[in-house]
Design brief:
Layout: E1 2-8, E2 11-17, E3 33-41, H1 44-64, E4 68-76, E5 79-89, H2 92-100, H3 102-111, E6 115-123
Antiparallel strand pairs: 1-2, 3-5, 3-6, 4-5
Helix pairs in contact: 1-3
Length: about 130
């Protein structure tokens, strides 16, 4: 497993990558599973706290979730109160384990009051470079 990095508000946050796990199939606990989430915070104080919570949970994810292959967080140009997460999991079971983890449950509970909006989009695999079938 190799470790990469993703930036959120200028900070470098570790992420986990193991592209040898990708099979190109989707669903039922077998094959890559990915999603994109947009979070909209209420004000500058909320986004500052959101970024602090994000840095802490991404550290936990990189240490405790081998099935989380990429967990990249981003700020959005022209939308200072928005954040985008790009997440890739080994399979749906790895995503379920991620969502059930105590550190993720605590993150959800602490970040939700900071938000005025959220949009989740589940992705089907397509043509790619870097994240390809083994």
């Amino acid at each position: 497993m190799t470790r990469g990095a993703a930036a959120c508000s200028g900070r470098v946050i570790p992420v986990v990558r193991d592209c040898t796990q990708f099979t190109g199939r989707y669903g039922g606990g077998v094959g890559m599973f990915a999603l994109v989430v947009r979070f909209d915070c209420g004000d500058q104080a909320a986004v500052t706290r959101f970024d602090e919570l994000t840095a802490a949970v991404v550290h936990e994810i990189s240490e405790k979730e081998p099935g989380t292959l990429v967990y990249a967080t981003h700020s959005v140009e022209g939308a200072p109160l928005a954040r985008i997460f790009y997440e890739v999991y080994r399979d749906r079971d790895a995503f379920a384990a991620h969502e059930a983890a105590d550190h993720v449950q605590q993150f959800h509970a602490r970040k939700d009051p900071l938000l005025v909006g959220r949009r989740v989009e589940f992705l089907s695999p397509g043509t790619a470079t870097g994240l390809v079938a083994a």
